[in-house]
Design goal:
- Two copies of one chain form a homodimer.
- By secondary structure, chain A is an alpha/beta fold.
- Chain A has a single domain (22-272), classed as Rossmann fold (3-Layer(aba) Sandwich).
- Chain A is built from eleven helices and ten strands.
- Chain A has helices at 21-38, 56-68, 87-101, 110-114, 131-148, 160-173, 176-179, 205-214, 231-245, 249-265, 290-307; strands at residues 10-11, 18-19, 47-51, 73-80, 104-109, 153-155, 185-186, 195-197, 275-276, 283-284.
- In chain A, the strands form three sheets. A six-stranded mixed β-sheet of chain A has the order 5-4-3-6-8-7, sandwiched between helices. Chain A has a two-stranded antiparallel ribbon with strand order 1-2.
- In chain A, α2 links the parallel β3 and β4 (73-80).
- In chain A, α1 crosses α2 (56-68), α1 (21-38) packs across α8 and α6 (160-173) packs across α9 (231-245).
- The longest helix of chain A is centred in the first third of the chain and has 18 residues, at 21-38.
- The A-B interface holds A 171-174, 176, 234, 237-238, 241-242, 245-246, 249, 252-253, 255-257, 259-261, 264-265 and B 171-176, 234, 237-238, 241-242, 245-246, 249, 252-253, 255-257, 259-261, 264-265.
Chain lengths: 308, 308
Amino acid sequence: MHCKAADGEIFIPYARGRLCPSCYINFFERKVKRTVSKYRMIQEGDRVAVAVSGGKDSSSLMHALKKTFPNVEFTGIYINLGIGGYSDECETILTDFLKKLEVDFIVYDVRKELGISVEDFKRTYFKGRLCSPCGTIKRYLLNKIAYEEGFTKLATGHNLDDLVEVLFNAYIHGDVSQLARIKPVLPSSHEKFVVKIKPLCELTERENLLYAECSKIPYRTIACPLSARARSRRGKKVIDKIAESIPYFKHAFFKSHLKKLSRFFEPEASIHPIVECKVCGMPSSTSPCAFCKRLQLVKEVNNRGRDD
Amino acid sequence: MHCKAADGEIFIPYARGRLCPSCYINFFERKVKRTVSKYRMIQEGDRVAVAVSGGKDSSSLMHALKKTFPNVEFTGIYINLGIGGYSDECETILTDFLKKLEVDFIVYDVRKELGISVEDFKRTYFKGRLCSPCGTIKRYLLNKIAYEEGFTKLATGHNLDDLVEVLFNAYIHGDVSQLARIKPVLPSSHEKFVVKIKPLCELTERENLLYAECSKIPYRTIACPLSARARSRRGKKVIDKIAESIPYFKHAFFKSHLKKLSRFFEPEASIHPIVECKVCGMPSSTSPCAFCKRLQLVKEVNNRGRDD
């Protein structure tokens, strides 16, 4: 399947032999294509929004999708969360990258649109764990923009390591509703929820990094300054430790979950009734929705700041 | 709850303060008692067989049960598997220990009773993984003897580390029928199956070792010579690695499984119909049962050996 170049330096345990950069690119893109078709992620006529962050995973995703599915419409959506010295750099990198890739690009700047920034949460009770409200805001806005712009799918760059980390935590804590949601395609449970797809779900963080390097994809090199103590970073270290002892751990655990266990939790995915948020009108399990609550919280803190 | 002795040297993360040996013994026995009552393991009138191996876990179990439930009848059952330089030593230690403890002791020697030894499996296709047929034989005989001798419960020394190791593997491989069986009390699905109880299921390997040391319980100090490469030993190392990063891992994982997840797998526990083994008449999912198949295998290999 690949060249016999003597300079093949890339070793992927389950690929035959060592790959040269150009063969690795082929290997990676074939795998993305196979994942998309295996889980029926993209159908004819789909308009696909790709959530881009400026990181290696989502930029690799956009690059591989665009090359593999030349007839599908892809558009990047970036949420600029106003994190000083970070968000703007990511936006600049993305603007340049997506222009060269010739795909449309939607930027939503929370400072301009909502008058807040994720940094404002430092003065709320979320102080030490800003990833939580940041995630809520990002997820909400990505879906809302994709919905309002008429996209039929929302693709994210979640890789196997991301999913295994969430899965592992969900099993440790018996978080059944989370267990019911971890899958390659999350169907829509309301017309205003866009179907979410994860075409990189079977590729590891390392494989995405290698693809970005081999394809010379520009990506941010600094980590988010607010997430240094993030739970997910510690969680990934544990996952990597396990994989050192059990090399097949990540793939086997994810596969067993999908093929053998997730069906048991499936009924739990739909037991929480969906209501309409009385503030924004978007579907949610609570009203006001988590996004509107976080927004309200930050606005109160900001106003108090101004009054002082 | 415990003395203020300045020499408290035993630290248990979830016990208050440091414990001296005598307080540790109290702590351990209270915990065994609480576990037995929480999961309703022993009722009035029960005759309890305790599977003893000569190791620290099962001897600690027997010792703690005997002290904590003075009015219950306990009997040790030991399966001598004929492992050279190991099985007989374990039997000697146990004979002495159980005599001092004043409990009845049943020894079943597979060489005398069946004319085989677990070592014979070295010449079968089980060669490199003798723990598998050994486990089959032990489980079968312990249940059969307990049933035939009229015991109502069969207690085993499985500790939290044992259970978490099995649980972890079952989740990685999506082994649903195993997931349905990992619990403190395994009810009987057939009149010839004795109810199995695991009173040490919430105590770690380290806690059992400490109890054996503090109570001066004699136990074998050499490991089984056939299990050096056992999967479970490697598995436990992984579990300990995880626990180094997530100190509450073992307890949380087991508890979440029991309280939140196991109910989903429950229906799977009973989907395999039980048939009667046409060779031995014991209940099993196959006929001949796994025990009779292993026995037949070894006898064939032994006969062939004699013919040569």
